[in-house]
């Protein structure tokens, strides 16, 4: 059930009547709702960190949400991935990117609402993933440098369309 929730972005992406039938069957088979809820909760400090990322959002080219927060924290990767998911809730945003610090570099979590291949974008930054969920870890760069690199790639994406 957890995989179904994650893969469909809580039943909002790539769903069909079959998706809901399978979810219903899993619930009938005893999927634990309390455990599911627990798996999708964050510690307070991770949630606050995510809020700091979201406070630093900018819209690039009118359709890419780019945000980040440069203070290190143990849960930064999780907070950034959840922030990237949240940024897709902005009207008109086709893809989102959330930066966070890594030891010796910068990480970025990328998400797509379905029309932008974030896997290809993250590959250009040395990372990978899937069409709608991807990430990269950039060693030896600052957040500002990583941000500039992403904006160059997004500019190229705009020109290709």
Describe the structure.
With 161 residues, the protein is an alpha+beta fold. It has two domains: 2-39, no CATH class; 44-160, Diaminopimelate Epimerase, Chain A, domain 1, CATH 3.10.310. It has seven helices and six strands. The protein has helices at 2-7, 17-28, 33-39, 44-55, 76-87, 118-124, 143-160, and strands spanning 58-60, 64-68, 95-102, 105-112, 128-129, 133-139. Helix 4 crosses helix 5 (76-87). The chain starts with a helix and ends with a helix.
What is the CATH class designation of the largest domain?
A: Alpha Beta
Largest sheet: 6 strands, mixed
Segments where pLDDT lies below 50 for 5+ residues? none
The helical percent reads 40-55%
Q: Give me the side-by-side strand order of the main sheet.
A: 1-2-3-4-6-5
* Overall 3D form: globular
Number of strands: 6
The number of domains = 2
Instruction: Report the span from N to C terminus.
Output: 37 Å
Q: Using the coordinates shown, work out and report the CATH topology of the largest domain.
A: Diaminopimelate Epimerase, Chain A, domain 1
Mean pLDDT: 91
Structural class, from helix and strand content? alpha+beta
Rg over CA atoms: 17 Å
What share of residues are in beta strands?
15-25%
SSE succession? HHHHEEHEEHEEH
Number of DSSP helices? 7
The CATH architecture classification of the largest domain is Roll
């Amino acid at each position: 059930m957890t995989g179904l929730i994650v893969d469909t972005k809580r039943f909002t992406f790539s769903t069909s009547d079959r998706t809901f039938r399978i979810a219903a069957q899993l619930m009938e088979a005893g999927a634990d709702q309390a455990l599911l809820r627990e798996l999708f909760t964050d510690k307070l400090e991770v949630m606050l960190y995510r809020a700091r990322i979201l406070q630093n959002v900018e819209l690039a080219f009118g359709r890419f949400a780019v945000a980040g927060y440069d203070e290190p924290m143990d849960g930064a990767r999780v907070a950034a991935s959840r922030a990237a998911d949240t940024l897709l809730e902005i009207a008109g945003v086709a893809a989102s990117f959330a930066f966070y610090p890594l030891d010796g570099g910068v990480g970025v979590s990328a998400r797509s609402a379905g029309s932008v291949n974030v896997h290809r974008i993250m590959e250009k930054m040395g990372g990978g993933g899937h069409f709608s969920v991807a990430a990269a870890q950039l060693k030896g760069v600052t957040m500002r440098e990583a941000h500039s690199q992403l904006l160059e790639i997004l500019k190229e994406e705009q020109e290709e369309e």
